[in-house]
Protein backbone atom coordinates (compact mmCIF):
# COMPACT_ATOMS: atom_id res chain seq x y z
CA UNK A 1 0.00 0.00 0.00
CA UNK A 2 2.75 2.45 0.93
CA UNK A 3 4.91 1.36 -1.95
CA UNK A 4 2.17 2.14 -4.45
CA UNK A 5 1.67 5.53 -2.82
CA UNK A 6 5.39 6.28 -2.93
CA UNK A 7 5.59 5.05 -6.50
CA UNK A 8 2.75 7.25 -7.65
CA UNK A 9 4.22 10.23 -5.79
CA UNK A 10 7.61 9.75 -7.44
CA UNK A 11 5.94 9.17 -10.80
CA UNK A 12 3.96 12.38 -10.51
CA UNK A 13 7.10 14.29 -9.53
CA UNK A 14 8.90 12.95 -12.63
CA UNK A 15 5.91 13.80 -14.80
CA UNK A 16 5.81 17.31 -13.44
CA UNK A 17 9.51 17.84 -14.24
CA UNK A 18 9.19 16.01 -17.56
CA UNK A 19 6.54 18.49 -18.75
CA UNK A 20 9.10 21.21 -18.39
CA UNK A 21 11.48 19.38 -20.68
CA UNK A 22 10.09 17.05 -23.33
CA UNK A 23 7.88 14.02 -23.78
CA UNK A 24 10.69 11.50 -24.33
CA UNK A 25 12.15 12.14 -20.86
CA UNK A 26 8.73 11.57 -19.29
CA UNK A 27 8.37 8.20 -21.02
CA UNK A 28 11.78 7.07 -19.71
CA UNK A 29 11.01 8.31 -16.22
CA UNK A 30 7.70 6.45 -15.94
CA UNK A 31 9.33 3.13 -16.89
CA UNK A 32 12.47 3.69 -14.82
CA UNK A 33 10.62 4.36 -11.55
CA UNK A 34 9.00 0.93 -11.20
CA UNK A 35 12.35 -0.68 -12.05
CA UNK A 36 14.05 1.45 -9.40
CA UNK A 37 11.43 0.43 -6.83
CA UNK A 38 11.79 -3.25 -7.73
CA UNK A 39 15.56 -2.97 -7.32
CA UNK A 40 15.16 -1.20 -4.00
CA UNK A 41 12.79 -3.92 -2.83
CA UNK A 42 15.20 -6.67 -3.98
CA UNK A 43 18.07 -4.89 -2.22
CA UNK A 44 15.97 -4.73 0.95
CA UNK A 45 15.20 -8.48 0.77
CA UNK A 46 18.87 -9.26 0.13
CA UNK A 47 19.97 -7.19 3.13
CA UNK A 48 17.38 -8.93 5.32
CA UNK A 49 18.58 -12.38 4.21
CA UNK A 50 22.21 -11.33 4.72
CA UNK A 51 21.40 -10.07 8.23
CA UNK A 52 19.58 -13.32 9.09
CA UNK A 53 22.47 -15.38 7.76
CA UNK A 54 24.97 -13.40 9.83
CA UNK A 55 22.79 -13.88 12.92
CA UNK A 56 22.48 -17.64 12.27
CA UNK A 57 26.27 -17.87 11.83
CA UNK A 58 26.80 -16.16 15.19
CA UNK A 59 24.30 -18.53 16.83
CA UNK A 60 26.02 -21.65 15.49
CA UNK A 61 29.45 -20.24 16.44
CA UNK A 62 28.16 -19.67 19.97
CA UNK A 63 26.73 -23.20 20.07
CA UNK A 64 30.08 -24.67 19.06
CA UNK A 65 31.97 -22.59 21.63
CA UNK A 66 29.51 -23.65 24.35
CA UNK A 67 29.83 -27.29 23.31
CA UNK A 68 33.64 -27.06 23.41
CA UNK A 69 33.55 -25.47 26.86
CA UNK A 70 31.12 -28.10 28.15
CA UNK A 71 33.22 -30.88 26.62
CA UNK A 72 36.40 -29.56 28.26
CA UNK A 73 34.70 -29.46 31.68
CA UNK A 74 33.27 -32.95 31.25
CA UNK A 75 36.64 -34.23 30.02
CA UNK A 76 38.33 -32.76 33.11
CA UNK A 77 35.76 -34.49 35.32
CA UNK A 78 36.41 -37.87 33.71
CA UNK A 79 40.19 -37.60 33.29
CA UNK A 80 41.07 -35.85 36.55
CA UNK A 81 38.63 -37.53 38.91
CA UNK A 82 36.85 -40.61 37.58
CA UNK A 83 39.82 -42.29 35.87
CA UNK A 84 42.28 -41.78 38.76
CA UNK A 85 39.74 -43.15 41.25
CA UNK A 86 39.16 -46.20 39.03
CA UNK A 87 42.92 -46.71 38.63
CA UNK A 88 43.30 -46.84 42.40
CA UNK A 89 41.04 -49.87 42.41
CA UNK A 90 42.61 -51.71 39.47
CA UNK A 91 45.73 -53.82 39.87
CA UNK A 92 48.91 -52.75 38.13
CA UNK A 93 49.56 -54.34 34.76
CA UNK A 94 51.93 -57.23 35.13
CA UNK A 95 50.86 -58.00 38.71
CA UNK A 96 50.23 -61.65 39.44
CA UNK A 97 46.62 -62.84 39.90
CA UNK A 98 47.28 -63.16 43.63
CA UNK A 99 48.11 -59.44 43.75
CA UNK A 100 44.59 -58.43 42.77
CA UNK A 101 44.22 -56.01 45.59
CA UNK A 102 44.19 -52.24 45.10
CA UNK A 103 47.56 -50.57 44.52
CA UNK A 104 46.82 -47.88 47.08
CA UNK A 105 44.36 -47.49 49.86
CA UNK A 106 41.08 -46.99 48.01
CA UNK A 107 39.07 -43.91 48.88
CA UNK A 108 35.81 -45.23 47.39
CA UNK A 109 34.39 -48.43 45.96
CA UNK A 110 33.61 -49.10 42.30
CA UNK A 111 29.88 -48.86 43.06
CA UNK A 112 30.37 -45.46 44.67
CA UNK A 113 32.36 -44.26 41.67
CA UNK A 114 29.57 -45.44 39.38
CA UNK A 115 27.01 -43.62 41.55
CA UNK A 116 28.99 -40.38 41.57
CA UNK A 117 29.97 -40.28 37.90
CA UNK A 118 27.08 -42.28 36.44
CA UNK A 119 27.53 -42.40 32.66
CA UNK A 120 29.78 -39.34 32.32
CA UNK A 121 32.15 -41.15 29.93
CA UNK A 122 29.29 -41.97 27.53
CA UNK A 123 28.08 -38.37 27.65
CA UNK A 124 31.64 -37.23 26.95
CA UNK A 125 31.69 -39.38 23.80
CA UNK A 126 28.32 -37.98 22.74
CA UNK A 127 29.56 -34.40 22.93
CA UNK A 128 32.81 -35.24 21.20
CA UNK A 129 30.75 -36.59 18.28
CA UNK A 130 28.47 -33.53 18.36
CA UNK A 131 31.43 -31.17 18.12
CA UNK A 132 32.93 -33.16 15.26
CA UNK A 133 29.58 -32.96 13.45
CA UNK A 134 29.10 -29.21 13.96
CA UNK A 135 32.63 -28.13 13.03
CA UNK A 136 32.45 -28.95 9.25
CA UNK A 137 29.12 -27.16 8.94
CA UNK A 138 30.62 -24.01 10.38
CA UNK A 139 33.76 -24.22 8.26
CA UNK A 140 31.64 -24.51 5.07
CA UNK A 141 29.05 -21.95 6.15
CA UNK A 142 26.67 -20.47 3.58
CA UNK A 143 23.28 -18.73 4.00
CA UNK A 144 21.28 -21.92 3.36
CA UNK A 145 23.39 -24.10 5.67
CA UNK A 146 21.44 -26.16 8.20
CA UNK A 147 22.52 -27.78 11.43
CA UNK A 148 19.31 -28.81 13.20
CA UNK A 149 19.45 -32.14 11.40
CA UNK A 150 22.51 -33.04 13.49
CA UNK A 151 20.51 -32.65 16.70
CA UNK A 152 17.54 -34.54 15.26
CA UNK A 153 19.78 -37.42 14.18
CA UNK A 154 21.37 -37.55 17.63
CA UNK A 155 18.14 -37.21 19.61
CA UNK A 156 18.19 -40.87 20.68
CA UNK A 157 21.70 -40.49 22.11
CA UNK A 158 20.64 -37.51 24.20
CA UNK A 159 18.60 -39.96 26.25
CA UNK A 160 21.89 -40.74 28.00
CA UNK A 161 21.10 -37.71 30.12
CA UNK A 162 18.03 -39.45 31.55
CA UNK A 163 20.22 -41.84 33.52
CA UNK A 164 22.57 -39.03 34.53
CA UNK A 165 19.75 -36.78 35.74
CA UNK A 166 17.91 -39.59 37.54
CA UNK A 167 21.14 -40.44 39.38
CA UNK A 168 22.09 -36.83 40.20
CA UNK A 169 20.43 -36.63 43.65
CA UNK A 170 22.02 -39.92 44.75
CA UNK A 171 25.43 -38.73 43.55
CA UNK A 172 25.11 -35.43 45.42
CA UNK A 173 24.04 -37.19 48.64
CA UNK A 174 27.00 -39.57 48.38
CA UNK A 175 29.44 -36.71 47.77
CA UNK A 176 28.01 -34.81 50.71
CA UNK A 177 28.38 -37.89 52.88
CA UNK A 178 32.03 -38.25 51.86
CA UNK A 179 32.93 -34.64 52.49
CA UNK A 180 31.12 -34.43 55.85
CA UNK A 181 31.86 -37.81 57.44
CA UNK A 182 35.24 -38.84 56.11
CA UNK A 183 37.40 -39.28 59.22
CA UNK A 184 40.71 -38.62 57.57
CA UNK A 185 39.23 -36.20 54.99
CA UNK A 186 40.91 -38.15 52.15
CA UNK A 187 37.90 -37.62 49.86
CA UNK A 188 37.83 -33.91 50.53
CA UNK A 189 41.57 -33.71 49.76
CA UNK A 190 41.21 -35.73 46.57
Verbal overview:
This protein is mainly alpha-helical. Helix content is 77%, strand content 0%. It has 7 helices and no strands. The protein has helices at residues 2-20, 23-89, 110-117, 120-139, 148-153, 160-181, 186-189. Helix 1 (2-20) runs antiparallel to helix 2 (23-89), helix 2 (23-89) packs antiparallel against helix 4 (120-139) and helix 3 packs across helix 6. The longest helix is centred in the first third of the chain and has 67 residues, at 23-89. The N and C termini lie far apart (72 Å).
What is the mean predicted local confidence, pLDDT?
80
Please tell me what the overall shape is: rod-shaped
**Major beta sheet, specifics?**
none
End-to-end separation: 72 Å
| Radius of gyration of CA atoms, rounded to a whole number | 33 Å
H/E topology pattern:
HHHHHHH
Total count of strands: 0
Approximate strand percentage: under 5%
Count of individual helical segments: 7
Q: Give the assembly state of these chains.
A: single chain
Structural class: mainly alpha
Low-confidence stretches: 22-26
Helical residue percent band = over 70%
SSE topology:
Blueprint: H1 2-20, H2 23-89, H3 110-117, H4 120-139, H5 148-153, H6 160-181, H7 186-189
What would you say about this model in short?
This protein is mainly alpha-helical and 190 residues long.
What labels would you give this structure?
190 residues, 7 helices, mainly alpha, rod-shaped, 77% helix
Amino acid sequence: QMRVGASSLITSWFRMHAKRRHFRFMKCATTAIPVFIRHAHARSRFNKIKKQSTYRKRVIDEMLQTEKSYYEGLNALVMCFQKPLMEMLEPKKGDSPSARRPRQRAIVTIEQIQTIFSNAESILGLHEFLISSLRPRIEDWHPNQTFADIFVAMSAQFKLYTQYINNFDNAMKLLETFTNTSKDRSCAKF
